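User: I'll paste a sequence; please echo it back and then give the predicted structure.

Assistant: Echoing your sequence first, then the prediction.
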Amino acid sequence: MTQMFELNYINSLFSQETAVTIRQMELIAEGKRTPSTLFTAEKNQLQTLFLSSLSLTTSEWNDRLKKLTDLGWLTENEGRYQTTMQGQQAKKTFISDYPVMDCSLDMSAALTRKEFWHWFMFVTQILSEFSYGNKEYMPYISDRISQNRIKQWLAEQGFPHKSLSLTWAREIRAFLETLPDAHCTFIVDQLIGHGYEGMTKRQTAEKYKMTPLEVLITTENLMVRLSQSFEKSVLLKSLWDSTHKNCHYGLSDSAYRSMTLLAKGNSIHKTASVRKLKENTVKEHVLEAVLISKYDGYKSFIPEHIYNQLRELFLNEPSLTYAQAQQDIHQLEFFWYRLVEIERIRGNI
């Protein structure tokens, strides 16, 4: 089963709504934040693929999708790949064999769940070494900027009080106890602490008879599971929130800067002027925020009568195209159309 993991994983990404080209799959996996790529991911329910650890070249994508087609799990029509009944059955079997893959992922946390693992590991190392009074050790994270951010977070939690180490250990233990034994040891084997060097990804793959991809995705999904069980984990939740903020809540740096200005009440025109950008660029940043972080303040950017007209048109024709909408609404901006179309896709119309 391990040798088939990659093919099974790709197949598991497909739902009944998915109909995409190889290039679209590749761009989503690379984490491209263009409005068209993000919209394709949303429309085809491929949020889990966004910024994935699945790193394939174009030729490799061609090879994998051809194999899935040969298996009868996918079908290809005019360059677009869709699932089959056989493919959906294979998906159910795969998730049954790998329950950790049954994990709801969104694009806003795509970078956070990767970064959080490293912050989680480093904090564990720092607190472990501190509890033994050891200051001479090789830090898990060598990047100075990340080190300083994590140290700042620790200071905000009251470090260097010993009670912090005890609380951290208690919260980790509580999380591990919710996992199957295999996943519990999978996490523990990789941790770093005083007198304990955790396994590398290669060593972990060898011990658990996994592919490197399986190790990465399993680790990331377990971190998402952790983020969904923060009720009694004050420190872990705080670290996740800090990591998420550091990752700009999933947005690109430029989009984050624009959205920060817009959140202060600035218009798109004013924001573009302050940042010396084109207004269309700021509009793309709004679309990025809507698609990635579920930003819901976009209605103020659409004239109310246009918004109402678009909603009425989508109610009457869910597959309404921009060209069709233009026939009913004079000087309709594509930006306005796309925002309301996203509402329709999300079932809000």
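The chain is about 60% helix and 0% strand. The radius of gyration is 23 Å.
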